[in-house]
Specification:
Helix content: over 70%
Radius of gyration: 22 Å
Number of helices: 4
Largest sheet: none
Structural class: mainly alpha
Order of helices and strands: HHHH
Shape: elongated
Oligomer: single chain
Length: 108
């Protein structure tokens, strides 16, 4: 095992632990974090496996496959965060409206 493999596995473990702490009440997210940790560890220990999978899927290099998957993961995360921000904005707007109406009725 090389030094970079050890570093990458330790970093993956730290991120996985952080994810289980952050998502402590969401079992699906915690299971996803464990799955990502195991997948990352597998690909770090067996880097040629990405090439095998990539060739099976019709991609030239394993690095390209990992890049494509990371791109879609980032896009999904961005859309998820955007949806959550929009939901929070709507909640805040509704709260401010109800407070304004309540204050206006009390002034009368």
């Amino acid at each position: 095992m090389t030094k970079i493999q050890i570093i990458l596995i330790v970093l993956s473990l730290l991120v996985g632990n952080l994810a289980t702490i952050v998502f402590r009440s969401r079992l699906a997210y915690r299971l996803l974090a464990v799955f990502l940790f195991l997948t990352t560890t597998f690909f770090v220990l067996f880097p040629d496996a990405t090439n095998v999978i990539a060739h099976y899927l019709g991609v030239t290099r394993g690095t390209d496959l990992v890049l494509y998957m990371a791109l879609f993961a980032v896009m999904y995360a961005f859309l998820l965060l955007y949806a959550k921000v929009r939901k929070l904005e709507r909640k805040i707007t509704e709260g401010i409206r109800s407070r304004a109406i309540s204050d206006a009725q009390q002034v009368r």
